[in-house]
């Protein structure tokens, strides 16, 4: 069943069907931090081919130094946009 589900999800992604991201679902704000992290992990497990899941895997693969550089670059970009 998992192979079929994966194929269906890939076809949905190609056809433009949008599965709401965890924070787009009702009640997200009421969830605890741990529950929000669990929802994100569940989403990534359910939709491994989604762009969001791919980005999460890329972030998880980064070293501490790469993450620090990313944070600094993001902060600089936010300051420039003000």
Provide a brief overview of the structure:
Helix content is 70%, strand content 0%. The chain has helices at 2-15, 33-46, 51-61, 64-81. The model has no long low-confidence stretch (mean pLDDT 87).
Tell me about this structure.
Helix content is 70%, strand content 0%. It is an all-alpha fold. The chain has one domain (2-81). It is globular, with a radius of gyration of 16 Å.
Low-confidence regions: none
Question: Order of SSEs, N→C?
Answer: HHHH
Tally of helical segments: 4
* C-alpha termini separation: 49 Å
Subunit organisation of the chains: single chain
Q: What is the helical fraction, as a range of percent?
A: 55-70%
According to DSSP, the number of beta strands is 0
Strand residue percentage: under 5%
Task: Tell me the overall shape.
Answer: globular
Mean pLDDT: 87
Our count of domains comes out at 1
Radius of gyration: 16 Å
Structural class: mainly alpha
**Biggest pleated-sheet summary:** none
């Amino acid at each position: 069943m998992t192979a079929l589900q994966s194929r269906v999800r890939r076809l949905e992604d190609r056809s433009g069907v949008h599965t709401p991201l965890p924070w787009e679902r009702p009640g997200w704000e009421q969830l605890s931090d741990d529950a929000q992290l669990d929802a994100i992990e569940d989403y990534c497990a359910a939709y491994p081919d989604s762009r969001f899941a791919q980005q999460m895997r890329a972030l998880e693969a980064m070293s501490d130094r790469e993450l620090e550089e990313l944070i600094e670059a993001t902060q600089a970009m936010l300051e420039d946009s003000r």
